């Protein structure tokens, strides 16, 4: 099951994306955003997805946090709130 939630608080907007999958093993959690890190077989992934996302969010003065255990993983993306006016 996938859950997506947005919340607005000053000075950030948070986009949370969670699932009920296997979770991220603790021993690789610190590496998942490293360039070229992948758990996929050779030739099946480049390992650039989370690295690219982190760079984009960082360029917008935001941050990403992840919490994971078996049956529950959630990524929180926090970006500065900007009024549309």
Features:
2 helices; alpha+beta; Heat Shock Protein 90; four-stranded antiparallel beta sheet; 85 residues; globular
Strand content: 35-45%
Reading off the top of the CATH hierarchy, the class is best stated as Alpha Beta
**Low-pLDDT segments, ≥5 res:** none
Could you give me the name of the CATH homologous superfamily? Histidine kinase-like ATPase, C-terminal domain
Total helices: the number is 2
**Could you state the order of secondary-structure elements as H and E?**
EEHHEE
Task: Decide which structural class fits the backbone.
Answer: alpha+beta
For this structure, the quaternary state is single chain
What does the average pLDDT come to? Answer: 91
Query: What is the spatial order of strands in the main beta sheet?
Result: 1-2-4-3
CATH topology: Heat Shock Protein 90
Number of strands: 4
Task: Provide the gyration radius in Å.
Answer: 14 Å
Q: Main β-sheet: number of strands, strand sense, barrel status?
A: 4 strands, antiparallel
CATH arch. level architecture: 2-Layer Sandwich
Overall spatial form: globular
Task: Give the topology, please.
Elements: E1 2-9, E2 12-19, H1 26-29, H2 49-59, E3 63-69, E4 72-80
Antiparallel strand pairs: 1-2, 2-4, 3-4
Structure description:
Strand 3 and strand 4 form a beta hairpin. By secondary structure, this protein is α+β, with helices and mostly antiparallel strands. It is globular and about 50 Å long. It has one domain: Histidine kinase-like ATPase, C-terminal domain (Heat Shock Protein 90, 2-Layer Sandwich). Strands 1-2-4-3 form a four-stranded antiparallel beta sheet, covered by helices on one side. It contains two helices and four strands; from the N terminus they run E-E-H-H-E-E. The chain has helices at residues 26-29, 49-59, and strands at 2-9, 12-19, 63-69, 72-80. Helix content is 18%, strand content 38%.
